[in-house]
Design brief:
65% of the residues lie in helices and 1% in strands. By secondary structure, the chain is an all-alpha fold. A hairpin with a 3-residue loop joins strand 1 and strand 2. Helix 2 crosses helix 4, helix 2 runs antiparallel to helix 10 and helix 5 (151-181) packs across helix 6 (194-210). The radius of gyration is 20 Å and the shape is globular.
């Protein structure tokens, strides 16, 4: 989810957990005041006040914004490595050097507005869908012997959460990628901002053009979200002392669990992310779909091309997720003092 990710995310890829004060975690939750639990909720736990829902929604937004601010330079580097012509860059450091030389520090934040604008709804939809998916699993297994969801069931809920979230993430990613890649390798600046991108895309091919890459986005965020939630639960349990509740984890442990989950997600999501970036940045008609993009990418650049941007993505995953948790916790505590 994105966001980048962030999705994220997503995902964006960011997620949510209840600690000493309830909070959300990436990506992308209106129900952040509830525990991110694998256990069947009681009626009382299922009732969340309007004020708490508002706090959760806002806190998730702040967490997502923090993730974007910390992670965007890494994301831009990843996207440029994925979409540039062979030989344009020797590696991630070369991308940074050339970007700074041409556009200064502001160049590292090119294309940041789309994920900033999209991160709040992405986080909200993702966590709402994740919670709904868990409830669906409980509803479909009325005779279950355990009141807790297994890791496989949590991963399934994570995968399902990406389905509705993609409807928000895909157009955000489309605009972000186009803004990130313009100006590289001496190309001219075509778009002046997000609104200009959307106007051009709509004029070029209508809504279909704006949502180009939706299938690739789901191919990335579905498995990515599954890995994220599974890794998060495993790490959270591993960091919980015997006899203690996971909800009593301290902030440091939460950051470690969230960062680990982010790394797990991107370790799996890079190949479809490469294809998504290429589909969304290529001229109309270059690729007929995800599989066509995969075939042409491998034929032209080899299988290794599917892992372009792996370094920047991994470098971004941990700090971006840590920033998300810090943003959520800080904003949540601030709001608790007001209402």
């Amino acid at each position: 989810m994105y966001t980048e990710n962030v999705k994220t995310s997503h995902l964006s890829v960011a997620r949510s957990i209840s600690v000493s004060s309830p909070a959300s975690d990436p990506p992308h939750t209106p129900g952040a005041s509830q525990k991110m639990s694998s256990e069947a909720p009681s009626p009382d736990e299922s009732r969340v006040s309007a004020a708490e829902s508002v706090k959760s929604f806002i806190a998730g937004g702040f967490g997502g914004v923090a993730a974007v601010c910390v992670g965007h330079p890494f994301d831009l580097t990843k996207t440029r490595l994925q979409t540039a012509a062979p030989g344009a860059y020797t590696g991630a450091i070369d991308v940074v050097k050339k970007t700074l030389a041409k556009d200064g520090i502001a160049g590292m934040y090119r294309g940041m507005v789309p994920p900033l604008l999209g991160v709040t709804p992405i986080f909200a939809v993702s966590f709402w869908a994740y919670d709904a998916s868990k409830q669906l699993i409980f509803a479909l297994t009325p005779n279950r012997t355990s009141e807790s969801l297994s890791i496989a069931e949590l991963a399934t809920a994570g995968f399902l959460s990406a389905v509705p979230t993609t409807l928000v993430t895909a157009p955000v990613e489309r605009a972000k990628v186009l803004l990130q890649v313009q100006g590289q390798a001496g190309s001219q600046t075509k778009y002046s901002g997000v609104t200009d991108v959307l106007k051009h895309l709509y004029k070029e091919g209508g809504i279909k053009s704006i949502f180009r890459g939706t299938g690739a986005t789901l191919a990335r965020d579905g498995p990515g979200s599954a890995a994220y939630f599974a890794a998060y639960e495993i790490t959270k349990k591993a960091l919980t002392p015997a006899g203690s509740s996971p909800s009593e984890l301290n902030l440091g442990a939460i950051i470690v669990a969230g960062g680990t989950a982010g790394v797990a997600m991107w370790a799996l999501a890079i190949p479809p992310d490469v294809l998504k970036s290429r589909i969304q940045s290529a001229p109309t008609g270059t690729y007929s779909g995800l599989m066509d993009c995969a075939r042409k990418t491998i034929a032209q650049d080899g299988v290794r091309a599917l892992w372009k941007g792996f370094g920047p993505a991994m470098a971004r995953a941990f700090p971006a997720n840590a920033a998300t948790f810090l943003g959520v916790e800080a904003s949540r505590k601030l709001m608790d003092g007001f209402f």
